[in-house]
């Protein structure tokens, strides 16, 4: 298939007012009757409808049956020429048949454990019925479901229901990708929410029988999200009912279908025994994310899929703000930047680099990326920083007022910021249209009381974009005096040139700069700070992000020095000692400082410096540093481990989760030198999954996990979500030489149900997450991984394509590894019948 291009966009020649859908459910032959009322917007246009894997039973226009001579039916759709259509508004009626039980790709209507459910974003609706499956066609849906399942759900409000029948009406016009239907034997955990104007909304979390007692956290998180969106953005919910359904087989995290969110059960179900603190935080964040889409995504949607970051970037930004408000902004920002660098910077540095708003694609499913989501959120954050709180709020108010009910573009979005602030954002727009992470080099000087910061920005060429123009970069800066006082408080410098200097006058002594506070722009900062300056910032910076960042930079310096066999000093170890003694510092923050940079991020840092990363050397350096830190601070660490034990009933709140995170970070260090004694004891006594899994991960790290692993499996084999953790942890954390053998053995485990996306991802991400194990010099892990992608592709192309990103860093490594990865990619690309999804990915990966 040829690429689709943004420049080819044309409005749909018809408006679609109402949609009537009648479903008669059957696993092998579900009948879908559709009644679509169209009005022509231009003369003599043919009606083109998308449709894939559908059996067409009949077509009629205004009650008159068409014969096959009247239309064209292809593998991708149905076209009715203008001469077979009235020039006035008309109703098209089709009857189609589909087989949900055979739908393993999990797009459209499919079955999971006997329950019917749908996933229509981005282009799944065309597997349900013939339809203009594009987001700028918005219509009101009226849906009936006939089926013998006890619970029958669709979007909107329930208008009629009796045994085996339900009727749902959604008053809000929406694109087809937000359609949803669920039918099954489900139980509800229910509540009510009273909106800001006093309307009562029924809220339900629907799950399989037996899971009801793991829903309350999600329900409360939903209520918190609904309240927060009213308070922070003035957005009220707009239906009488809000349903969330948990499903085990799901390609993504969750989906924001209007009034009927469908979630991967992993991001709904939580109990202290089965979910970790991190899971609780993620669940709350994803519930919020999908809920926030009700306004940013549903009421205002995207004109076309090139604009995906319009809804995703903004909604991620909103869920980040929410989690910050709920759990603390400093640690949330650090977590988000870790994720951004780990996934988006990595993506941006390799062959898959693309702009947040791409201008062409072959398969849109391949663009649900860290760049669209996380970098998209960073761009919204920069707009917020440039305009200030009031300016941002004014722009968002205008966005909702001007565009409610519309399908919009990035241009529309930027225009509301321009109109409400009077600023020109044409240069800023490059953040959306240009790929690549800018490098920001900084030099400083001090003379006669004037301090000068000189910045230089540069963005490397990316696929299809060789010329890069300067970006508009907000750089938040503060200056500290040598005793740690802030002599110039945080201020936002706006860089717009390739090279630009900023001066600060009237300073008594040379200040220490704190640059890019709160990570004010998604750039790679290059500064030759010496270790004493970093240690100083780690102790004194007011900006918690930059405090952490200084410690991070120190750790990175030591690790890179070790990998390259250079002399390193003790300043990182000393700084860690000081931090461990600092009881005023937030435990969660201290935990984040104790976690060493990942092997992958060390590899990336080496690559950025022009070195070729050696995975085995990186592993050895990181292990060595961890052991040395443990040895140097043995007593202090042991004290913290003992004193930070939580008391009282479990809660996932930061007050408990923070100390728990610190305790586990300490355990991971001590475990390297105590022969697994503490981890073994904690594993035996743990009463919650955070500690149980944390102890297990520590044991795995040193390969002392056989007994614990068997015990864990015995205990949890009936629990699919916990077993996913079991598959993942023993691969991602084990010594690299064990990883591939373990992975091979695990694929023979009867619990390795590889067609279930969560299980497939757990095993494969476990292996690819084991940096040195995946990048074995003999290439055997590459081969194994590629074999499994090829096996999954015909079953579930979307997941296979997404998992192929394990190879996105192939250009980083030495020639031997590069060649081996390349030949696996070529082998995949040459596979006959490869899906469009995986074929586009391998072609882009190969460049
Ligand atoms: N639109 C979904 C989300 O990001 C993904 N399919 O919430
Ligand atoms: Zn989203």
Automatic annotation (TrEMBL):
Residue intervals of the Peptidase M1 membrane alanine aminopeptidase domain: 217-431
| Cofactor annotation | Zn(2+)
Keyword Lipid metabolism assigned to the entry: answer is no
Record-linked SUPFAM superfamilies: Leukotriene A4 hydrolase N-terminal domain, Metalloproteases ('zincins'), catalytic domain
What is the catalytic activity of this protein? Release of an N-terminal amino acid, Xaa-|-Yaa- from a peptide, amide or arylamide. Xaa is preferably Ala, but may be most amino acids including Pro (slow action). When a terminal hydrophobic residue is followed by a prolyl residue, the two may be released as an intact Xaa-Pro dipeptide
Q: Which residues form the Peptidase M1 alanyl aminopeptidase C-terminal domain?
A: 532-846
Q: Which ranges carry the Peptidase M1 alanyl aminopeptidase Ig-like fold domain?
A: 436-527
NADP: is it a keyword of this entry? no
**Signal peptide location in the record?**
none
Can you name one GO molecular function term for this protein? aminopeptidase activity
The protein's matches in CDD domains, at most eight in alphabetical order, are given as:
M1_APN
Q: EC number(s) for this protein?
A: 3.4.11.2
Family per similarity comment:
Belongs to the peptidase M1 family.
Q: What is this protein called?
A: Aminopeptidase N
């Amino acid at each position: 298939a040829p690429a689709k291009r943004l420049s080819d966009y044309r409005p749909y020649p018809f408006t679609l007012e109402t949609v009537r859908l009648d479903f008669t459910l059957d696993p092998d032959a579900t009948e879908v009757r559709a009644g679509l009322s169209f009005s022509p917007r231009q003369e003599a246009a043919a009606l083109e409808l998308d449709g894939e894997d559908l059996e067409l039973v009949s077509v009629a226009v205004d009650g008159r049956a068409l014969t096959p001579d009247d239309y064209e039916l292809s593998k991708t759709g149905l076209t009715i020429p203008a001469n077979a259509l009235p020039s006035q508004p008309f109703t098209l009626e089709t009857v189609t048949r589909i087989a949900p039980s055979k739908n393993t790709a999990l797009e459209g209507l499919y079955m999971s454990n006997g329950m019917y459910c749908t996933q229509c974003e981005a282009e799944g609706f065309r597997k349900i019925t013939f339809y203009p499956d594009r987001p700028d066609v918005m219509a009101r849906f009226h849906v009936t479901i006939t089926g013998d399942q006890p619970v029958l759900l669709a979007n909107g409000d329930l208008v009629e229901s009796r045994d085996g029948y339900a009727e749902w009406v959604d008053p809000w016009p929406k694109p087809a990708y937000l359609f949803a239907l669920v039918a099954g034997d489900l139980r509800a955990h229910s509540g009510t929410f009273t909106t800001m104007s006093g309307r009562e909304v029924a809220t339900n979390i629907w799950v399989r029988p037996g899971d009801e007692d793991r829903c309350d956290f999600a329900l409360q998180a939903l209520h918190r999200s609904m309240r927060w969106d009213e308070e922070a953005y003035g957005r009220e919910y707009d239906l009488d009912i809000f349903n969330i359904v948990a499903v085990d087989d799901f390609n993504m995290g969750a989906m924001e279908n209007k009034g009927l969110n469908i979630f991967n059960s992993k991001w709904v179900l939580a109990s202290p025994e089965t979910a970790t603190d991190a899971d609780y935080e993620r669940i709350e964040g994803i519930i919020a994310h999908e809920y926030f889409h009700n306004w940013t995504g549903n009421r205002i949607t995207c004109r076309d899929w090139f604009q995906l970051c319009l809804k995703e970037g903004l909604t991620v930004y909103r869920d980040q703000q929410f989690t910050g408000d709920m759990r603390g902004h400093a640690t949330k920002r650090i977590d988000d930047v870790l994720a951004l660098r780990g996934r988006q910077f990595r993506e941006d540095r390799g062959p898959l680099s693309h702009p947040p708003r791409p201008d062409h694609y072959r398969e849109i499913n391949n663009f649900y990326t860290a760049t669209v989501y996380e970098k998209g959120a960073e761009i919204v954050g920069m707009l917020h920083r440039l305009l200030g709180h009031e300016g941002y709020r004014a722009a968002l108010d205008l966005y909702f007022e001007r565009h409610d009910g519309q399908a919009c573009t990035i241009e529309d979005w930027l225009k509301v910021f321009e109109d409400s602030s009077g600023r020109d954002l044409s240069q800023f727009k490059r953040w959306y249209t240009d790929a690549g992470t800018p490098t920001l080099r900084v030099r400083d000087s001090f003379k006669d009381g004037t301090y000068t910061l000189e910045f230089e920005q540069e963005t490397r060429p990316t696929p299809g974009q060789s010329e890069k123009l300067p970006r508009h970069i907000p750089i938040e800066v503060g200056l500290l005096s040598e005793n740690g006082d802030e002599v110039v408080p945080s201020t936002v410098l706006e860089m717009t040139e390739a090279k630009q200097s900023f001066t600060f006058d009237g300073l008594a002594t040379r200040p220490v700069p704190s640059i890019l506070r709160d990570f004010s722009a998604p750039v790679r900062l290059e500064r030759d700070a010496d270790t004493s300056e970093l240690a100083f910032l780690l102790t004194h910076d007011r900006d918690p992000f930059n405090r952490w960042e200084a410690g991070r930079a120190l750790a990175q310096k030591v690790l890179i020095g070790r990998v390259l066999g250079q002399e390193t000093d003790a300043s990182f170890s000393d700084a860690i000692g000081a931090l461990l003694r600092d009881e005023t510092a937030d435990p969660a923050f201290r935990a984040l400082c104790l976690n060493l940079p990942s092997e992958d991020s060390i590899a990336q840092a080496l690559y950025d410096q022009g070195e070729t990363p050696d995975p085995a050397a990186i592993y050895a350096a990181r292990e060595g540093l961890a052991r040395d830190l443990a040895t140097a601070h043995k007593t202090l660490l042991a004290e913290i481990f003992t004193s930070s034990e939580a008391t009282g009933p479990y809660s996932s709140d930061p007050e408990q989760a923070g100390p728990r995170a610190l305790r586990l970070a300490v355990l991971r260090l001590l475990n390297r030198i105590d022969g697994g004694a503490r981890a073994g004891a904690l594993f035996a006594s743990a009463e919650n999954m955070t500690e149980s899994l944390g102890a297990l991960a520590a044991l795995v790290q040193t390969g002392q996990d056989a007994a614990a692993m068997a015990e864990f499996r015995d205990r949890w084999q009936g629990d699919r979500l916990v077993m996913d953790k079991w598959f993942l942890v023993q691969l991602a954390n084990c010594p690299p030489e064990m990883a591939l053998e373990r992975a091979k053995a695990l694929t023979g485990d009867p619990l390795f149900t590889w067609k279930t996306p969560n299980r497939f991802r757990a095993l494969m991400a476990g292996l690819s997450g084991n940096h040195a194990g995946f990048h074995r010099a003999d290439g055997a892990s590459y081969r194994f991984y590629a074999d499994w992608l090829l096996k999954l592709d015909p079953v579930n192309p979307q997941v296979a394509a997404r998992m192929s990103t394990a190879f996105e860093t192939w250009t980083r490594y030495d020639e031997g590894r590069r060649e081996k990865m390349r030949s696996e990619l070529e082998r995949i690309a040459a596979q006959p019948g490869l899906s469009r999804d995986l074929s586009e990915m391998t072609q882009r990966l190969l460049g």
